[in-house]
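Hey, I'm writing a tutorial for new members on how sequence and structure tokens pair up, and I'd like a real worked example in the thread rather than a made-up one. If someone can provide the structure for the chain below, I'll link this post from the tutorial.
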Amino acid sequence: MIKQCTFKGLESIVMENDFLKATFIPCYGGKLASLYDKEKNYEWLFQKDEELKVPPYGADFSEYDSSGFDEVFPSIDKTYHPFNGEVVPDHGEVWTLPWKVTILDNQLLLEVVSPRFPYSIKKQIKLAENELQIQYQTFNNSDKPFSFIWTPHALLNLNQYTEIQVPSHLKEVITVEHSTVHLGEWGSIHSYPLTYSLNTGEPLYLNKMWGPTDQTCEKFYFTEKLQEGWCRILQRDLNRQMTFAFPKEKVPYLGVWKTQGGYRGDYNFALEPCTGIYDDVYVAEKIRKVSSIPPNGSYSWWFYIKIENI
């Protein structure tokens, strides 16, 4: 079932079946604002109890809503794009733009066109039992390659029972936050999942959460490319898990964002499969760790979210 509704004061589109209820806000960057697990009566996406305000183009992400799943494209950090030197806003362009919405039988089509760069994006969404399936296609309307970083900035609930699971070959991370409490300065390398705090020397399991008293904020990337196209969140108090699946050859990198009170007092985290690192598309192109839409061509991938018992 697909229906039009209102969510936190904004017009929304709801996709719902016996397993899941997914709420999208086309006017707010096509945001997946809520993903509700009907079997466990559990909201998987981080929420704040306040009305939503649509940000203007180029807004500072930190000054607006930090909940739900925002599309980040073509960069995470504010930067100059190597294509033409134009500024890419904080967290990219598309999270602030209105997306055109079309309901196609049991599917949802969302489309957006950049006002500054020669690209457009389509995402086609289907709810198949306990899995939300999103197909992406980007188009480059220029005669030069267009480099980009895409990531699903899906902020998730956390507590002391939350655990991250990743492919077993991922053994090392690099921190990309400045002066973090435990992981040190940007560029510090740590073993994964067990490392040691550079501040206190205590052992830290980077795949675990420490609840609402830690007062830290961390962002790190795995130093190896993904050999398998998945990552997972275990919610052990519910005996439930959420799995992200995607094509590893198209989405080859994985980052993790965790804030446990250290950023705006929020408690959430994000597993972020991505097409380039480390947050800045200009830097990513220089170090050849970026994806690119070919001249007058397209670049496609898929991203599935599945919720089930552990």
